Each structure stands twice: as structure tokens, then as C-alpha cells.
Amino acid sequence: MTTRSDPVAIFRHQTPGAQAALLTVLVGALCLALEPVAPWLGAWPTAWTLPATDWVGTVTEAVLQAIKPVARWFSRLLSYPMNGADWLLNITPWPIVLGVTTAVGWLLGGVPMALLGFLGLSFVLASGYWSESMNTLALVAVSVPVALVVGGAIGILANEVPRIKTAVDAVLDVMQTVPTFAYLTPLLLLFGFGPVVGLIASAIYAAPPMARNVILGLERVDPDIKEAAIMSGGTRWQQLFQVELPSASTQIMVGVNQSLMAALSMVIIAAVIGGFDDIGWEVLLTMRKAQFGQSLLAGLVIVVFAVVIDRMSGAMATERKKHDTRVFYGLLLVSVAVTLLFWARLPNPAEFTALAPVADHVDQALTTFTVANGATLDAIKNGAMFYGLLPLRIGLDQAVLPFTWGFAWTAGMSAALFAAGAGLCLVLAWRGRLTSGLMVMIGVGVLETGITNLPWPFVLTGAGALAWVAGGRRLALTVLVLLSTILVSGLWDRALLSLYLSGASVFACTVVGGATGVLCAVSPLAWRVVRPICDMLQTIPLFVFLIPVLMFFQIGEFSAFLAICAYAIVPMIRYTRHGLVSTPPDLIEAATATGATPWQIMRDVRTPYAAPTILLGLNQTILYGFAMLVIAALIGTTGLGQSIYLALGQADVGLGLSAGAAMAILALIADRIVQGFAEERRQALGL
Amino acid sequence: MTDAKTPAITCRNVWQVFGSGAKQALSTALSGSGNDPQGAADQLLKGGFIPAVQDVSFDVAEGELFVIMGLSGSGKSTLIRAISRLLQATAGEIRIEGEDIVAAGKQRMIELRRNTLGMVFQHFGLFPHMTVAENVAYPLRVQGIGRSQRMAKAQEVIDLVGLGGREENFPRELSGGQRQRVGIARSLVTDCKVWFLDEPFSALDPLIRRQLQDEFLQIQAKLKTTIVFITHDINEALKLADRIAIMRDGRIVQIGTPADIVLRPADDYVREFSKDVAKGQHAHVRSVMQSGPDAPVAGPDDPGLKTGMTLDAALARCMSLYEPVPVHDDSGAIVGTVHPADLAAALQADET
User: Fold this and answer.
1) pLDDT at B346
2) pLDDT of residue A580 exceeding 60
3) What are the average pLDDT values for consecutive 10-residue runs of chain B, which has 352 residues?
4) What is the pLDDT of residue B225?
5) Same structural domain, A504 and A393
6) Are A471 and A419 within one domain?
7) Chain B residue with minimal CA distance to A232?
8) Which residues in chain B touch residue A249, judged by CB atoms under 8 angstroms apart?
């Protein structure tokens, strides 16, 4: 017999959320209380750390050494088409490149696309970065076909052999969550310094979207169409290539589009390896020299490329109209004619410096601006650091100093903070919202201690408990095992640092992005303004985000924070708005008919209905945040991203791979937990 | 209807069970229940399997229009897929023109589909990237027939279904009714001998549906193929069928002519269906008359009933008569009698 006073019975009586939160609070309190006597509860002792990083390094290097000859041979094989494409693009007179782009634009999307192609390439020409751009284009031109063929083959294979599909899905997941920089180190060892590494890395990075879209497209072919192909007496080969793949062409074109964008993004990131004199290298170089005007110009060239490639390949997926091929040939002819006519007087593209003065001017203006407003910018930066990021990172007890807040943090203040938290918790619990109350308690504890100083048992329990609520025992176990590997491999501190920065960014994105999403949902005008900004932010390769933040806030954590936010906020806005506006009209009509105000409809009908979609947006935001975190290492972050970047410089495969894996683990855990919650909401709504 | 020839389609104890290891589970379940299909199905359900088609047997004669009717989830679509071997039947025997197609190899199935079988789908299954003509000619294309030859043949069937002039349109440019005409044309382009139609008209609106049903009957009158036609609409079944099989929960509960279904429903389930049907329009005098030698001589007030008349028409002619009246066959000879009261009673039979 258990009675009401039996604590176990009371515990069992609570909702899973409350149970999980209660457990976390208890473990946290225990750690806090015992820390003076058992310091190993706070920070994982170095003596207990396994040299896993070295092991990974040794094993991988051995494997890499073994396959190196093959790799080098492969590398040489790939260098032929790459050099060929490079030579071809550079030798071709620029009017012809311009003409071909315009003509292809016409073929894909009529006048708007032709115009986009023409203006885009004209801008590139005027920027004076023509030859660097052609080098970048050559890399993309070789890596994308490789990615498309490999990705397409993987997709078809997974479709034909259902048994391997789960495995393929898992591999694609990993390929997309492992940070881009982490690929580079082993590839560097395997293929040696040089552009081929960038080529292969971008092919690896660009293949999964293709594979995914091929799988999705083939899956989504109407069963009646598949059966009609069978009943027409086609062989499997005929069914696949004559019916199923063409029927899935729209989805496959989406894959081509994503693949192109991924390849471009990666080619530019791979510039950090150097050796190819491409446009990404130009950005990096000017950024290092603090020539922000030039850097901005080069960055704009990348953006122009991204926009042209994205919109044109996007048109392949959506456009159905056929455009007159005579115009296509006409444009080609014109460009050839112009070339021949002005052959002798055709200026070298490097001589175009129309925009160089602009760049110089911008550079000077920026310098003037930052000098004039240095105090304001510093105030913004310091304010955010002192009152936001720093307490989150090292806790109020260490962040509050006379230097930052104007007074020192005392034990009394800690006690008062905890007491206030406990009071709020009790009030909430008394009003029947025990889970919220406990969450307040956890929040207070984290704020007081700081994310990077959190005791490891508390983090493990918290993550495990959250996973248990989101996805049951199996997910909780997976999360615990994965986190433990980080813990024992000695990457824990860095993982917490990464967690802190991405956590802060994701939190900011959720609040700001969520609010923007709501605004866009209620006001079409706001959406008309925000939408092109979102489109633009999603098209820009990650790398380019660094330029503006660097211009104003120099190297440092705050700049990284801003860069991550700028990139990761987009899905939050999009999904929030999409979720809110796609409430079925009859639900809204029913609510209106019962006399609900618009605000009540928003709160009681539209938001709950949109919850799964918004959660998916949050999920995307988290993954975007992690992806950008690694790139942001270039402008000064600590944590795993920095380790990955350092490993690249030192060709330390062990560190690079381990840190990359740790990063992927964090991303995967966040992904699975949020997906679990989204799935639960979907089921609760019967969607 | 049935004659000494081999039936076009034969199904014997066909089972289609979903779930991994279904074949093994089915044979265990059957031996466990002593070959009782009901018991075996219950056992399979308990084991997490889905017995979508249970112990189905029937024959379809050559040139017969056989309709399988049932509500959604009754297993009718699964059954037609088992017969056309889009699904591999879990157990049982399926013969098409005497050939066991459950055992047929991949290559043989491709041959059969190229030469013998044709199928029309509920959602048309048109290839979105091909024009009407290319869609219709596709079954010929997979056989490697040259373009001009297959286009000529496609043109014939396109004209047959009344789509002349739309050859170069894409499916997305057509209305629902037109799309299904394309589907019908494509299934006919290879001169199939067995024609499967899986709810071909269900996705269409009622007016178009009726129009296509009529045209379908005309096409069938011309081609005289053997047809298995799936529908969930009892009126459609009664209008088109030579014979109807009614399915419920994976089993066939009754097989019979439209008149049988309407006048002599096998159980309450079938009766429920036929309740809403205007029986007088579907049952014929033949089904209620007494045939026999003691036929009365045609008197002066002979209303001239024929065996093929619907009950409604017959009743209209002998409303005021109270004696048995003779029934003539098509040649005019008297073949039986019917009491007017029986005609009226047949209409009322299941109104309780």
C-alpha cells in the first residue's frame, strides 16, 4: 500500500515532463551541494579522460595512409576535368560567357532569367574579379556533376533495394550534420594540399541533397503511375528511366538546385585551404587585411553567383513554359559576333575596375564610420557581452564584477536569486503548473552557474530526461551514450562552449524569429518586406555572413553570435509564419462563429495548430546554428568549431574528426529531441 | 453464361495477407483452424497481420463483364491487384486463360502484360511528362515498336475513346473525364484480352461518370473483352455487370447477376446495399416468372410481357390484371407465366 504521503507515489503521479524536470532539479541541487566535498562532480577530471582523440587520429591516419595511393591517383584523375574546365572558362572570351549565361537564362525562365544572368555576370565583370570567379565556377562545374551522379545513384539504389534504405538515410544524416570543416582535414591528408580537396569536399557535401530528393521524388510518384508502367509491360529498367524518374523530375530538380547551392557554399569554404586563387580566397585575403570594402565587393560577387545559380536552377523545377529556342541561338550568335568584331580590342577582364573606386570608397567610409561610432558599437557589443552572453557562459557569480556590472556578486545575492526562483517555482506549482515552476528553477540554476560550468551529471540528467520526455526510453539511452562519449573523450569543455554559443544564438533566433514570424502571419505587408530578405539570407553562402559582422564588431564572440543569428533565424521566421497561416479556414471560421477575438483565435486555435510546424522551424534553426558555428570559428569562437578549424591548420586528423563528430552528436541530439516533441504534437493533433 | 471452355479467369482460395512472414503465418493459421477461413483470418488479425483478401474463389467467363463491388477497405482493390499480379498472392490459385499466373516468372509476366492484360486506374496513372499520344502509345514503346507504327495504332484507340484532336496535349491540360479516356485508350492499345478496371469512374463527377459508363458499354459491345471491373457504387455495378461479386472485409459474400443481388440478397449486408436501389429498373421479368409447360395460351388481354423486360415496365402493362399472364421470349414464343401480384411482391420484397 502506498499512501499519499509516500514520495515515490507522488512522483509517479506527476506528468512525464514534471518527473523529468524534478529529477533534473534534484541532481542539480545535489551537485551544487556536494561540489565542495566532491570536486569531480563539477568538472570531469582530466585523469578520467580517454585519449580518444589520439586513437581516432592514429587509426584514421593508418587507414588514410593505406588508401592514399588510390586517393592520389583519383585526385590526379579529377584534376584533369578541373583544370580543363578552368582553362576553358578562362580562355573563353568574356562576351561569350556572358552570352551563354544570358541565353541559358532565357531558355530556363524567359526574359527575367535572361536579364538576371546578364546583369549578374556584368556585375562580376565590372567587379574585376572575373578570373577568380571563373576559377570558382570551374570547381563547381566539375564537383556538381560528380555530386549529381553519385547522389542520384545512391538515391536510385536506396529506392531499388529497400533493405539498405535505413542505412542510407543514416549515412546521409551524418554527412549533412558533420560540419563542413571536419571533412577537410582527412581529405587534406588523403589528397594533399590543393584545389582537388575543395572539389571533393564540395562533391561530398553536395551529394546528399541530390540523393534525398531522388529518394523522395521516387517515393512520391503516384502509385497509379507506377502500376500503370508495370501493366504497360515495361521492364524494371524501362519503368524506372522512362516513367518513374521523369515523373519525379520536379523533385529531382529541387535536388539539383540544392546540390548546386551546397557545392558553391562548400567550394567557397574550401578556400581556407588555399591554392586556387578563387573568389572565396579573395574574400578571406581581404578580410585578413581588414580591407572590408574589397571584401564586401568579393562577397557580393559570391552572392550574385549564388542568386543567379539558385534562381536559374530553381526555374528548372518550377517553370513549365517552353521558351523559343531561336532566341537562345540568337543570343549565342550575338555574343560570338561581338567577340569576333571586337577581337583585337576586347579588354582583358582583369582590366575592368569600374567598381574598384567604389570598394575603396566604401572601405574609407566604413573606416570613418567605425572610428566615428566606435564608442556606440563598443557599447552595443559590451552590453550584449556583459549582460547577456557572459553570464550565460560563466554564470552570474563570475560574470558580475565591478568592471562589468558595477558591483561584485556575493554569496548573498546567489541565495537571494535561488530564493526568488524557488518562490516563483512554488507559486507556479501551487497553481498546478509544476513543470513550468521546475523549469524556472533549472533556468535560475543555469544562469547562476553558467553553461560552461554546469556539473556534468546535471547536463547528462537534463539531456537524458528531455530526451525521455520527447522520445521515450530509447532516445534517452541514445542521448546518454552519445553525450558520454564526448565526456570521456576530453572534448566536454569545448562541447559546452559550443552548446553555450549555439544555445544563446538559437534562443535569440527563437524569440526574434518567432516574433517576426507572428508579425508576418498577421500582416501580409510585413511578409512582403521580410520574405525577400529571408530568400536572400538563405541563398548567401555561409562564409559571406562573416564580412558585415566583422566590419562593425571585429573578431570575437559577439560577431560570431551575430553571424550565427543572421543565418539561423530564417527557418524560424518561415516556419512560424507558415504554421500560423496554414490553419484550416474552417477552424478559424468555427472559432470566429463562437465569438473569439482575433487575439484569442491566435492564442487558442492558430498557435496550437501551428506548434508542430514551429517546432520543425526550431529544429532547422538549431541545425543551421551548428553549421554556422563552425564557419564562425574563422572570426573567433572557442569550442568545438575552433578545434575543427585549428585541426585543419595543423592537419590533425584525430582532433578534426573527433571534434567534428562531437559537433555532429550535439546537432543530432538536438534534432532528435525537437523532432520527438514535434511528432508528439502532430499525433496529439491527429495530423 | 458458363460453357465448356476454360474460363478466362479462375480464382481458387486466393488469400492476400500483409505483414512480414505472411505466407508462413497463413499456412499456420489455416492448419490451426482446420482450414476454416474465418478462424484463420481472426487468428491472423490477432497476430498483427492484415488478411486483406480471404479465401476468394470465382470464375470469369470469356467476354463476361464481372464487377467486384465493395466499400473501401473491403479488399476489392487488393484482389484486382492480386489477379493482375501487381501483388503476389499469398496463397491460392489464379489462372488467366488457364495459365497459372501466381507461378509465372518475371519475364512471362512482362509478356502477359504486353499482350494479354490491360488495366485502368482510379487516379488515371497518366505519365505527366508525356503527351496524350505518347501516353497511349507507351505500352507499344516498351515493346520496341517503331514510333510511326505505334503512333498510328495509338491514333486508332484515341479516336475510339473520342479524344481525337487532343493528341499533343499533356495530361495536366485535360479534364478528369478526358484523362480517364486517355487511361482507357492506353489500356486498349495492345488489344488486351483481359481488361482490369479499378474504380475507373469513381474520381469523376456524376454527369461525366454516367457518360463514360455509357461509352464504356459501347466499347465493350464492340470489343467483347473479358472484364474485371471494381467499383464501390452499387448502381454502377448493376448498370454494367453481367455478374457481380460483393465483397466485405476481404471475403466475397455473394456472387450473382444484378437481379440476384437485388431480389435475392444473400444476407443483411447485401440487402442493405440493394435497399436504395430502384429494383424495378434492374430486375427482369425472367427472374420472377414461372417457366413451365403449363403456360396459358395467349388471350386477348395478353399484355405481351417479354423475359427481358424490367419489372417496372412489366408492371406498367398489367396493372389491372389479377390472373397469371404469359411471358414471351424474344422470338415471341411463350416460355412461362408470371402472376402480377408476384411482380409487385418482388419490388416490395426487402422493404421491411
Assistant:
1) 73
2) yes
3) 71 92 90 87 90 93 93 90 92 92 90 92 91 93 92 93 90 91 92 92 88 91 92 90 93 90 86 74 76 65 78 78 80 80 70 43
4) 92
5) no
6) no
7) B139
8) 129
Domain boundary, last residue among A453, A481, A505? A453
Q: Which pLDDT value is given to residue A3?
A: 47
The pLDDT of residue B349 is: 56
Arithmetic mean of pLDDT, A453-481? 89
| CB within 8 Å of B55: residues ≥ 6 apart | B13, B14, B15, B37, B40, B92, B251
Backbone angles phi, psi at B67, to 5 degrees: -105, 130
In a domain, A641, yes or no: yes
Residue A550 forms part of a structural domain = yes
Q: In terms of domains, do A435 and A466 share one? A: no
The position carrying cell 569600374 is A354
Report helix angle A492-522 to A607-632, nearest 10.
Answer: 140
* Best of B138, B186, B196 to mutate (most A CBs within 10 Å, chain A): B138
Overall domain count for chain A:
2
B100 contact A CB<8A: no
Pair A582, A669 in one domain: yes
Last residue of a domain, one of A453, A478, A510: A453
What pLDDT score does B197 carry?
A: 94
Residue A438 domain boundaries:
368-453
Concatenated DSSP letters of A276-332: S--HHHHHHHHHHTT-HHHHHHHHHHHHHHHHHHHHHHHHHHH------HHHHHHHH
- What rounded mean pLDDT belongs to chain A? 85
> Do the interacting molecules here have an ipTM over 0.85?
no
| CATH placement of domain B281-348 | 3.90.1280.20
The 10s digit of each residue's pLDDT in B163-198 is 989 999 999 999 988 999 999 999 999 888 999 999
**Is residue A542 assigned to a domain?**
yes
Nearest to B122 among A224, A243, A246 (CB): A224
Instruction: Identify whether residues A534 and A447 lie together within a single domain.
Output: no
Residue A430 clears pLDDT 50, i.e. is over it:
yes
Residue A665 lies in a domain: yes
**Whole-angstrom Cα distance, residue A21 to residue A24?**
5
Here the CATH number for the domain that contains residue A532 is 1.10.3720.10
Nearest to A231 by CA among B99, B145, B111: B111
- Residue tagged 486508332 (cell numbers): B156
Query: Which amino acid is present at A159?
Result: N
Question: In 3D, which of B256, B254, B286, B263 has the Cα closest to residue B347?
Answer: B263
Instruction: Return the H-helix or E-strand segment holding B21.
Output: none
pLDDT at residue A2, rounded to an integer: 43
CA dihedral sign of residues A627, A628, A631, A635: negative
- CB contacts, 8 Å: A235 with chain B: 110, 142
Angstroms from B267 CA to nearest CA on chain A: 34
Which residues of chain A does B190 touch, with a Cβ-Cβ cutoff of 8 Å? Answer: 233
